[in-house]
Amino acid sequence: MRPLTRAEEDIMHLLWQRENARVAELIVDMPEPKPAYNTVSTIIRILEDKGFVGHEKAGRGFKYFALVDKSTYQKASMKKMVNSYYEGSFKNMVSFFVKEKNMSAKDLESILKDIDKTED
């Protein structure tokens, strides 16, 4: 799966929320300062080229929709990050967050409880 830029990810998040939208509808959902219509349209075309977005005719324009679901993208992104920064080890990643004080013992206990639930 090809990586996305921050701007591309922002648009994908909007499409995952809406399921489908015209460019103008996406712009309405974007924070201020709103990007230009042509900017969003260009990013949508790039996402289409990357295989993340499809479109369908809607009146005189198009409605766009995600071809890659959020869960699939999350899994691929996390795998890439763990492989790139933590030598492919989720243990190393968690250890990093604990050392940086971004995760407490209470957080770890909660994660272990969640793991126990999924193993049942």
From TrEMBL:
Any single GO BP term: negative regulation of DNA-templated transcription
Gene3D superfamilies found in the cross-reference section: Penicillinase repressor domain (1.10.4040.10), Winged helix-like DNA-binding domain superfamily/Winged helix DNA-binding domain (1.10.10.10)
Domain of life of the source: Bacteria
Keyword Transcription: yes
UniProt entry tagged with the keyword Zinc-finger: no
Keywords: DNA-binding, Transcription, Transcription regulation
Protein name listed in UniProt: Penicillinase transcriptional repressor BlaI
Organism: Psychroflexus torquis (strain ATCC 700755 / CIP 106069 / ACAM 623)
The organism's taxonomic lineage, starting at the top: Bacteria, Pseudomonadati, Bacteroidota, Flavobacteriia, Flavobacteriales
